[in-house]
């Protein structure tokens, strides 16, 4: 039997999203990353949930900065990427790709998605069609490649691309509107993208989030996930080379 998890999403800092994930059977609650300890603790209290674990995707302060405060307040356990454990405050358990982690009766699989940082991981709940992807991939975007190489980041995005199409991607930032402005410069003729952009503009005008993003829609519109398409490779001047095509798109976005 697959257990339904509850996800509570709320804005944090300037443009981060906070996520609390609750498994009602056991009462377990995880904080996905910790941009802001006060906000997380207040939201947990509002929900009547007790944070039992923190799951970190990567070490950046807008993801792990609230770890110690939340641990102090709740006594929670902290799990995070083995590849950058030395930079994760208060880490208790180290994870790498392929590991399984439990939230009560629900299970998540860890996916290695290095590039933005070298140890970046994502958490996939296959039974729920939910993935927490941190700064690896955004709606119509992807994280800046700070620590890894373009090849490495492309390999990471390929792992995301292979998830079931109905997977909802819970990314860590509301960057969608500005990502959309860039995406249309790469694929001005993409009809699905145009429809998506119209939806995004409407959502933002209403003050509503555009996250989570449906993987199926991202595959049709997110330029960074489309570097393996021959027409995209040709347009970017790297026929037959997906990683170089990805690198070209990422470079253009960095200069945009
Ligand atoms: Zn980051
Ligand atoms: Fe971030």
Q: Any chance you could write out the topology, listing elements then pairs?
A:
Elements: E1 6-12, E2 16-23, E3 28-32, H1 37-47, E4 53-55, H2 61-64, H3 67-74, E5 77-81, E6 93-95, E7 100-103, E8 106-112, E9 121-125, E10 130-134, E11 137-138, E12 141-142, H4 150-161, E13 168-171, H5 176-186, H6 191-205, E14 213-214, H7 215-221, H8 230-235, H9 242-255
Helix pairs in contact: 1-3, 4-9, 5-6
Bound molecules: zinc ion (ZN) and fe (iii) ion.
The site of fe (iii) ion has 6 residues, from helix 2.
Keywords:
single chain, 256 residues, alpha/beta, Metallo-beta-lactamase, Chain A, 6-stranded mixed sheet, 9 helices, 34% helix, binds zinc ion, binds fe (iii) ion
Provide an overview of this structure:
It is a single chain. The protein is an alpha/beta fold. The protein has one domain (6-255): 4-Layer Sandwich (Metallo-beta-lactamase, Chain A). The protein contains 9 helices and 14 strands. It has helices spanning 37-47, 61-64, 67-74, 150-161, 176-186, 191-205, 215-221, 230-235, 242-255; strands at residues 6-12, 16-23, 28-32, 53-55, 77-81, 93-95, 100-103, 106-112, 121-125, 130-134, 137-138, 141-142, 168-171, 213-214. The chain has a 6-stranded mixed β-sheet with strand order 1-2-3-4-5-6, covered by helices on one side. Strands 7-8-9-10-13-14 form a 6-stranded mixed β-sheet. It has a two-stranded antiparallel ribbon with strand order 11-12. A hairpin with a 4-residue loop joins strand 9 (121-125) and strand 10. The longest helix is centred in the C-terminal third of the chain and has 15 residues, at 191-205. The model has no long low-confidence stretch (mean pLDDT 97). Fe (iii) ion (FE) binds at residues 60, 62-63, 135, 172-173.
